[in-house]
Amino acid sequence: MVDRTDLLTDLLTDLADESGELDALVAPLPWGDWARATPAPGWTIAHQIAHLAWTDHVALLAATDPGAFFASVTSAPDLGRLVDDGAEQFLAPAAKLLARWRAGRTALADALAAVPAGEKLPWYGTRMSATSMATARIMETWAHGEDVADALGVTRAPTARLRHVAHLGFRTLGHGFTAHGRAVPTAPVRLELAAPGGGTWAHGPADAPDRVSGPARDFCLLVTQRRHRADLALVAAGLVADEWLDVAQAFAGPPGAGREPLEGRAPAAGTTA
Predict the structure, then answer these.
(1) Rounded to 5 degrees, what are φ and ψ at 65?
(2) Burial, 207: exposed, middle or buried (Cβ in 10 Å; 0-12, 13-18, 19+)?
(3) Other CB atoms closer than 10 Å to residue 70's CB: what's the count?
(4) Quick one: CA torsion of 25, 26, 32, 35, rounded to 10 degrees?
């Protein structure tokens, strides 16, 4: 059995590395480039970093002052705009925004490391352990980093850190169905992903008739809703697996709008019943 402390330490190390990779991508940019539009409607590169800084801030409240976290939710003038308002609130000139993001993510890592084993932190519509929160922060940092990379025309090489995003994407299978108002399936699903650098990441029973397979990066792009399934080399076998690819989301809250298929691209996904 993996010790909880060792697991959390590894997760926080990977979170720091994921954040550091994105930091290195945006830190040299002139301020004009921070205003570049990203694939998220209405969001610039600055909005993406401000969102990460804001989410780290509310996660820090959840870990250190649950009362203040709940107050931040109940006092919000429009819960439907909570995320957008948070990003707007944390927008600042590049140097100040970077400093805010760096300080916030460091404070959050320290706070998560101090959370007692077994304690659950409040979050939007759920409660999370420190390890789950760290995993979610890796997922969000990577996903918003993809938006930034898209805005800059950069393709980032996938890393072994994607295993955390893939694991979260599999664990939230039921949430994806629930968020879309559909019944959670009882049939198990097998997930087999080609890992960066070789090997396979597998989840679920090996003998499950319903199966999803393909590149790990493609699956992570799907569950973070950064690409439409038609643009990904994911193959679903079975009706449950096929439906999952339409509703998958690794993040909490209501279903996102997702992304439209890329123009001029033939569908890459395959389905067999």
Answers:
(1) -150, 75
(2) exposed
(3) 13
(4) 110
Please give the single-letter amino acid code of residue 42.
G
Task: Please give the model's pTM, rounded to 2 decimal places.
Answer: 0.92
Q: Work out whether the CA dihedral 35, 40, 43, 46 comes out positive or negative.
A: negative
pLDDT in tens, 213-237: 999 999 999 999 999 999 999 999 9
Rounded Cα–Cα distance for residues 68 and 65 (Å): 5
Q: Please name the residues in contact with 184: beta carbons below 8 A apart, sequence gap of 6 or more.
A: 174, 177, 178
CB atoms within 10 A of CB 32: 8
CA dihedral 49, 150, 14, 257 (to 10 degrees): 80
Q: Would you state the structure tokens that stand for residue 226, as one six-digit string?
A: 């950064």
pLDDT tens digit sequence for 86-145: 999 999 999 999 999 999 999 999 999 999 999 999 999 889 999 999 999 999 999 999
The gap between the terminal CA atoms of the chain, to the nearest Å, is 37
47 touches 94 (CB < 8 A): no
Name residues whose C-beta falls within 8 Å of residue 204's C-beta, 6 or more positions apart in sequence: 170, 188, 189, 190, 191
